[in-house]
Specification:
It is a single chain. This protein is mostly beta strands. The chain has no helices and 19 strands. It has strands spanning about 5, 20-25, 35, 40-45, 55-60, 60-70, 80-85, 90-95, 105-110, 120-125, 135, 140-145, 150-155, 160-165, 175-180, 185-195, 200-210, 220, 240-245. The strands form four sheets. It has a six-stranded mixed beta sheet with strand order 18-17-16-10-13-19, with no helix packed on it. The chain is globular, with a radius of gyration of 18 Å.
Length: about 270
């Protein structure tokens, strides 16, 4: 398979550390996989809705290969990509679905810059097989028209956000309401994963420290619980939108059990 290079830039503050912090999220339903980096298996029987603890990796180029769980190490990957990991970077790689439902590997750079006292950063990432979505906090729409592969970051007071996701321009929830905790001095990244048409749409979270807090505080969550009774949450927020450059190559549906015959690659 032809792997695609996805360079990820680190901020000057990140470059102070020799190693990078890399978290991996599994967002493809019904697809247990093994994950390899440079030929070494780093995750076995990795399941849908799983968020790893951060992995500390030396800077460099990593050939990532995703194989069906239990497959031979030399079998054809169902997903592959080459990730350039800069020194000191804080990254997340998501095994997800495109808007059209095709498997992909999507990298994100985690912004670890500090926010004001008593505040946290809420990051919403669209990595599901679904069209553009709107995000609500209580009854207030706070994100509009977020499409697959994009993220939006909001600086918010610490607390619990009752959130729901709708298809863009609609009011009926396709995800939620869910309660999203935001901790002062921490970022909470929420990933929409799964497929809207297959009724597997759900959300998982990742939390990481801001402003130089110890990296060991970083954690992930396998899901968010519905809480339709949550009160409206007062939002005082500023938003920034970041695009992540993505490339796909040598990808086929990992749910296909017809052997290791590669399908045609797709660039995006």
């Amino acid at each position: 398979l032809c792997a695609a290079a996805v360079p990820l830039a680190a901020s000057p503050a990140m470059a102070a550390s020799a190693n990078a912090s890399v978290t991996i999220v599994h967002g493809i339903p019904d697809t247990p996989v093994d994950v390899y980096a440079n030929g070494n298996k780093i995750l076995s029987d990795f399941m849908f809705k799983t968020v790893t603890s951060p992995l500390s990796l030396p800077a460099g180029s990593y050939a990532i290969a995703v194989r069906k769980a239990g497959s031979a190490a030399d079998s054809t990957p169902v997903l592959s990509a080459t990730e350039q990991v800069p020194a000191g970077a804080n990254l997340t790689i998501v095994a997800d679905l495109t808007a059209a439902g095709q498997p992909a590997l999507t990298p994100f750079v985690n912004d670890t810059s500090a926010v004001g006292s008593g505040k946290g950063r809420l990051v919403v990432r669209h990595t599901a097989a679904a069209p553009a979505v709107d995000v609500y906090a209580g009854t207030a729409k706070v994100i509009s028209g977020l499409v697959n592969g994009q993220q939006q970051a909001l600086t918010v007071p610490a607390g619990t956000v009752p959130a729901k996701v709708t298809l863009a321009g609609q009011s009926a929830a396709v995800l939620g309401p869910v309660s999203v905790p935001v901790t002062a001095g921490m970022a909470t990244a929420v990933y929409a994963i799964g497929s809207a048409s297959d009724h597997t749409l759900t959300a998982v979270t990742q939390q990481y420290p801001l402003g130089g807090m110890p990296s060991g505080a970083q954690a992930g969550s396998g899901g968010l619980g519905a809480d339709p009774a949550s009160p409206a949450w007062p939002f005082a927020l500023t938003g920034t939108v970041a695009m992540v450059r993505r490339r796909r190559a040598g990808q086929r549906d990992p749910r296909d059990n017809r052997g290791d015959r590669p399908a045609a690659g797709r660039a995006g």
